[in-house]
Amino acid sequence: MSKSKLIGPYSLGSSLGTGTFSKVRVGTHTESGKQFAIKIMDKELVKEEQAEEQIRREISLFKDLSHPFVVKMHEVIQTETHMYIVLDLVSGGDLQTKLQEQVKLDESVGRRYFQQLIAGVRYCHGKNIAHRDLKPENLLLDERDNIKISDFGLANLQQQAQAQQQMASGIAPSMMQTVCGTPNYIAPEVLKEEGYLGTIADVWSCGVILVYLLSGALPFEDANLSVLYTKIERGDFSMPRFFSPELKFLVARMLTVDPKKRITVNEIINDPWFSVDLDRGIFALGDNQGGVAAAPVPITKAVTAAPTGAPGPQDGFATLFNMLSANFGDLVSQGKGSMIHDTRRRTMIFSGNEEAARNRLLTVLGALRCNPKTPSPNELKGFSNQPKGLMTWTLSIQPTISPRLTVLQLKLGNKGDEADFLAIAKQIIAQVGSDLASTSTI
User: Fold this and answer.
1) Taking the CB of residue 265, how many other CB atoms lie within 10 A of it?
2) Which of 85, 233, 288, 299 is deepest in the core (most CB within 10 A)?
3) Residue 204 forms part of a structural domain
4) Domain count, the chain
5) CA 354, CA 338: separation in Å to the nearest integer?
6) In this structure, are 103 and 245 located in the same domain?
7) More confident residue, 296 or 387
8) Contact at 8 Å (CB) between 250 and 268?
9) 261 with 172, same domain?
10) For 87-110, what is each residue's pLDDT tens digit?
């Protein structure tokens, strides 16, 4: 029988999942026997995907969080080639899977999940952290069927109290600029290029989640991203008829297009519908329970099972931050956005109108020998010979309400390998470069 690989004090076990540049495996602490989820990232792939800043930011924010409804980071270990992030092992799947199995939830069940979500979000906002990608896939369920907010890859700092004081005084607060998140859950102000408060945008996302929990359908949905964004920017959705008047009132206040008029998290927790069967003790959970401050995430100096002569783990946080800072600038401040993994699709937001986007893409795709054709003004199609054979592709060009932004959606056609497609997508993104306001996958 082969011996389990050891990383610090953890024995690596079965696989839990795979992403673009990471794998997640069960890790068992060799002394306590406690199990964790260990996210294993190949540093070379991280660099290729230009995700250093995203990971640096995620770790720097994530390491300070300690709350029952937020996945906890316990430790970071680094070797010469890999990074290992030790997280809570959450065994109950995610809320998206549960919704797919049950279509919609009983109101009392959905309310309980929603109360826990708001408690976790309120805690994060109290730490000046806006999540910016709240959705059922990022809400995990533990063995007691409690919510655990996960995936802080798009999170960023937002000085909430200061911003609210500035707004109350008529002073323009410091705004976030990066267009990011998952389309169906994005707040309208995020799409408008005018800056936004991430904490207020999170409230909108929670409102979308609430509708989805209790109706089984998203309030904003359309296969065409341009149409979808128009619906979001107008707040154009149909309230489910079977919602109670109290629930309709709360949803309407959360999905208010004007962020200045939108309900706040502190107002939500006093809402009549939200308050039913509410254990208000959940809002006292988190750091400093019982007057004892939460322990910081340790910098691991354990010995890693590595080949003879190979360097062992380094100072996990310090070395990681130095490496990332040396190799990458602050993408968020430069407005580059973020990239999330999907093996058959890439969505980009182009800084310019449709004509400028089409001309730029024709040039780039032609240079990459992708044989672009224009069957219609808003669509490019083509093919290219790749290492694993012929690959076909389609690229749609979709306008937004803003004349300065155009949505580009690149999809793998009915022929081709996903790895080849991702390689071409990376080349396109690299070539278009400074003309992109944001890149992501949906």
Assistant:
1) 20
2) 85
3) yes
4) 3
5) 22
6) yes
7) 387
8) yes
9) yes
10) 999 989 999 999 998 888 999 999
Q: Are residues 54 and 197 in the same domain?
A: no
Residue 284 in tokens: 């006292």
Determine whether 133 is an active site residue. yes
Q: What angle do CA 319, 69, 185 make, to 5 degrees?
A: 90
C-alpha–C-alpha distance, residues 399 and 226, integer Å: 6
128 and 84 belong to one structural domain: no
Same domain, 217 and 74: no
List b or e across 40-70, with b for residues whose CB sees 16 or more CB atoms inside 10 angstroms. bbbbeebeebbbbbbbbbbbbbbbebbbbbb
pLDDT classification of 3: cutoffs 50, 70, 90: low
pLDDT digits (tens, 9 = 90+) for 341-397: 345 777 777 777 788 888 888 888 888 888 888 877 788 888 888 888 888 999 988
For the question of whether the overall pTM of this predicted structure is more than 0.70, the answer is: no
Characterise 170 by phi-psi region: left (phi > 0), alpha (psi -120 to 50), beta (else).
left
CA–CA separation, 249 and 247 (whole Å): 5
CB atoms within 10 A of CB 303: 11
180/82 same-domain check: no
Contact present, 401 and 349 (Cβ < 8 Å): no
